[in-house]
Amino acid sequence: MKEVVKIRETKDLTEAISKIERIPHLRVVLTPFCNMKCTYCRPGGEGYYKKDTQTIDTPTLTDLIGFCGEAGFRDIKFTGGEPMLRKDLEQIICLAAETGHFENMEMVTNAYYLPGRVRVLKAAGLTSLSVSLDTYSKERFKQITKVDGFEKVIGSLKEAVSEGLPTRINAVITRYNINDVPKLVDLSESLGVVLKLIDTMDILMEGDNWKDYNGGDWVSLSEVDKMLSDRIKEWYYTLPIGGLGTPMRTLELKTGGIVMLRDATVGTNYNPEICGNCRLYPCQDALISARLTHDGQLKTCLIRNENLIDLMESYKEGDIERTKQLIRSAFSLLANAQYEPNRWKPK
Predict the structure, then answer these.
(1) What tens digit of pLDDT does each residue of 14-37 get?
(2) How many CA atoms within 13 Å lie on the side-chain side of 195?
(3) What is the 3-state secondary structure (H, E, C) of 141-183?
(4) Whole-structure pTM over 0.90, yes or no?
(5) What is the CB neighbour count within 10 angstroms for residue 159?
(6) What's residue 22's pLDDT?
(7) Is the pLDDT at 312 greater than 60, yes or no?
């Protein structure tokens, strides 16, 4: 796991962040589909797609990833849906590594299909892993995901640790699983991995097909401080890879554990050119990364679908310079976003 930027001077967080060079990271959505049906999830920021949706082939995807590397992206996250549903996953990782552009290549996965594959993925070039796990209750896991896969996920975490692949647990916290936090902390400490807690999205677009989502599930992560008050040694802020996104209040525990809180009320990065006329501004997620969708579009924003940057039209026409220019423009928009503290508040 690439070392994150730590900010210990918290009196003026905005000033501290302004001094840090921010290089947006790239999220590559390998598929919009997932084997789990978590009620809060909008896969890859893409929404839901019909079963006949077209996914770009490996050579095209590799070309686009390489162009993104040329534009300045240095950190890449393979995601979905569930990225491990893509049968050519190891090949894609290997080809991306061979471009020589990326310093960190992470996969975000629910880990259901991970058992027995960690060593091969690491050999292909994967440098870190984020595993989604919202509860340490087998029954609650099944309620959240609609899949009986708790033991597989726990086994995958242990395998990743044993293979020496830097790993983090990501947990989306709602009012239904907030009381699972202490057990998740215990698990992360026992494995020697970082635990990242994320507040659920309190955004729903008009006409969105994110049908099972309920913004009323949102719960303040300040509750975590109360739960862990007697275990906290110190706290500071860390920034996501590349320094763009929401500063995460990070708790260092007396027993050595690390708990990161992705709390949207702290503030995040916006760009007037993208966000200025958006009816959702200031939103919870804002500008964190560029997302290369499964069908070759580029997204600078998680929530909206009407501002997609079509890379495939110029690519199919053989106008590679135009494709690269579109990517460079998106990189610039993200890199020039500015941190705005305490903008978003829950409804």
Answers:
(1) 998 888 888 999 999 999 889 998
(2) 29
(3) HHHHHCCCCHHHHHHHHHHHHHCCCCEEEEEEECCCCHHHHHH
(4) yes
(5) 18
(6) 85
(7) yes
Rg of the chain taking only CA atoms, in angstroms: 19
- Give the separation between CA 114 and CA 156, rounded to whole angstroms: 6
Write down the pLDDT at residue 208. Answer: 54
Mean pLDDT (whole number) for 253-269: 95
Structure tokens at 171: 């947990």
- Angle (deg, nearest 10), helices 89-98 and 58-71: 30
Residue 151's CB is within 10 A of a number of other CB atoms, namely 11
Angle at which helices 58-71 and 320-335 pack, to 10 degrees? 50
Rounded Cα distance, 62 and 317, in Å: 17
Average pLDDT for the chain: 90
Strand pairing partners for 261? Answer: 197, 249
95-122 pLDDT tens trace: 999 999 999 999 999 999 999 999 999 9
**Nearest CA among 221, 279, 229 for reference residue 249:** 221
In whole angstroms, give the CA distance from residue 78 to residue 121. 12
327, 298 contact by CB (below 8 A): yes
For residue 3, the model assigns a pLDDT of: 60
**295 alpha-carbon distance from chain centroid:** 19
Give the pLDDT of residue 243. Answer: 84
What single letter denotes the amino acid at residue 242? G
Instruction: Name the amino acid, one letter, at 259.
Output: V
Instruction: Find out whether 27 and 289 touch, Cβ atoms under 8 Å.
Output: yes
Tokens of 60: 């095209």
Pairing of strands 297-299, 75-79: unpaired
Axis crossing angle, helix 181-191 with helix 150-162, rounded to the nearest 10: 30
Which phi and psi (to 5°) does residue 113 adopt? -100, 15
